[in-house]
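REQUEST FORM: STRUCTURE PREDICTION
Request ID: SP-0412
Submitted by: Lab K.M.
Chain count: 1
Length (residues): 432
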Amino acid sequence: MADAALRLRDLVGQLLGVPLPVRIRAWDGSEAGPPEAPALVVRNRRAVRRLLFKPGELGLARAWVTGDLDIDGDLYTALDLISGLVWERGEDARTLFQALRDPEVRSAVRGLVALAGPPLPPAPPPEEIRRARGHLHTRRSDKRAISHHYDVGNGFYEIVLGPSMVYSCAYWEAPEPGGTLERAQRDKLDLVCRKLDLRAGQRLLDVGCGWGSMAIHAAREYGVSVVGITLSQEQAAYARKRVADEGLTDRVEIRVQDYRDVTDGPYDAVSSIGMAEHVGAERYLEYAEVLLQLLKPGGRLLNHQIARRPHRDESAYDLNGFIDAYVFPDGELAPLGSTVTMLERAGFEVRDVESIREHYAHTLRRWVTNLEAQWQRAIRIAGPGRARVWRLYMAACALAFERNRIGVNQVLAVRTAESGASGLPLRSRTWN
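STATUS: Completed
RESULT:
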């Protein structure tokens, strides 16, 4: 009798203490659970072993990346239902199988072990980064982390990001149905340029320049000279070609360079869009101090950065297991208040903070749509495991922004002159 799904449903429900909100479809063809819900497809016993040896998020991620686990039905609905059992349970989800003093837990674990088969831990998928020993956020470790994330083929990012090649939150006026991703990304770049008050003849440093979109836009539309820096060789080569194709080589220089090694200031303005998440808490004050020293008095910084919700006990913060292992190695999210405090400690005057959280949810959903529309091409370029990583990562992040689990903010800060002059108008915003 094919009953693996029924056994899984009952055992996992017993373990969690609540019924599973999704259907289970098992390797023997059996199904169990709410008929109207998306199905969690458990393709083989190996998926169960992965969860037993790495309970919680990392085990689920490994099973997903390898294809041992899949979803049949709406991906966003399934992730929303599952998130309450994994991500929102916090530490309880990660230590679930350690609570063996509970007879119910012991009984459920024994049942899962019997169902999983021979108790050998499956090897992690090749897409999982292998950790090097040493301190985080050294020049070497940062370069390695950036390479893991970005050097997977520019063609893959062309699929996901579309023609704009901007890998950060877009700025939407009308996400549905008429707004296009390309227009929203152009509006974001222009918003940054206007906040920085860029003018012809000025110098802009674009920290974490990606594939060159901000540098090209600022040089072409505002007549500034731009230095863009990245740690990714593939990004730099791509950006240089785009700059040459635009005829902007006299105004845009793309370097493979760490922000700590830039010595040719002062600049009139600095843009840091989606880069500070890589800096890390230990290095953040240094990052802010370096950027301050690279600016002229009166110069502006636009820091565009994802933020997490603060914890009551900040020492309890830990890196997200799935994202750290597969997407952004060593990436750290800080609460908005911590970011503002560090910028002020470095000597900046923070003049404006704008939350654009909902905009990132719209952006991520468009990226997922782009990836799904060219799924087979994405697999050919980056491999099935990498494509599955990105589909899961972007869909889960879209939900996180929608549910206010994380946010994204543009912080405008100034290296205010000794006289106290900031150079900003008395009313710098227009509210609808």
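NOTES: The chain has 17 helices and eleven strands.
Reviewed by: T.R.
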